[in-house]
Amino acid sequence: MKKPWTFDDSNSLYYCTDVIVGWQYVFTSPEFFETIIDSLKYCQENKGLRLHAYVIMPNHVHSIISASQGNLSSIIRDYKRYTSGRISDLLGEAKNKRLLRYFRSVARREERGNEHKIWQSGSHPVLIESGEFFDQKLEYIHNNPVIKGYVERPAHWKFSSARNYILNDHSIIKVDLLE
Q1: Measured distance CA(153)–CA(135) in Å, rounded
Q2: Range of the domain at 24
Q3: Fewest Cβ atoms nearer than 10 Å: which of 50, 112, 117, 156?
Q4: How far apart are CA 85 and CA 83, in angstroms?
Q5: At what angle do helices 30-47 and 72-93 cross, to 10 degrees?
Q6: What is the C-alpha separation between 162 and 138, in angstroms, rounded?
Q7: CATH code for the domain of 19
Q8: pLDDT greater than 70 at residue 53
Q9: Is residue 77 part of a domain?
């Protein structure tokens, strides 16, 4: 029996949600968004990540992903490890002591030896087993910034695959489009 919130078959499509600890707003300036994009690009080019859809919101990231080499859980582990360190560095450069203190206190409570805990544990992967479910999740991802009132149209949110699907704009990051 499949354990909930795990990657069973890494060659399959998964809908994932990665959340900042305590739902703290971290992605508030371009360099934080670019950290996620750069890491996703690296994973695409070097680890076999296939990114089919995504949106980066101020405190979480939704994605539809798969892996060409069947190693999705290790890709996500490495992605979160790298982005955690980079986000901590950026918060330090910005002198954001409040968030750094918060993430340090969470790390201390977990007692795993990390200086900061940025991401909630897990990515809550949900296997996409039908075209209907894929369409539902794709629509949810693309409409998330609209529902939150950040933009009027999905393609207006710069860090979303809505731009890839609607405008055929792959300038931010290449997405493996699925129809």
Answers
A1: 18
A2: 14-129
A3: 112
A4: 5
A5: 150
A6: 9
A7: 3.30.70.1290
A8: yes
A9: yes
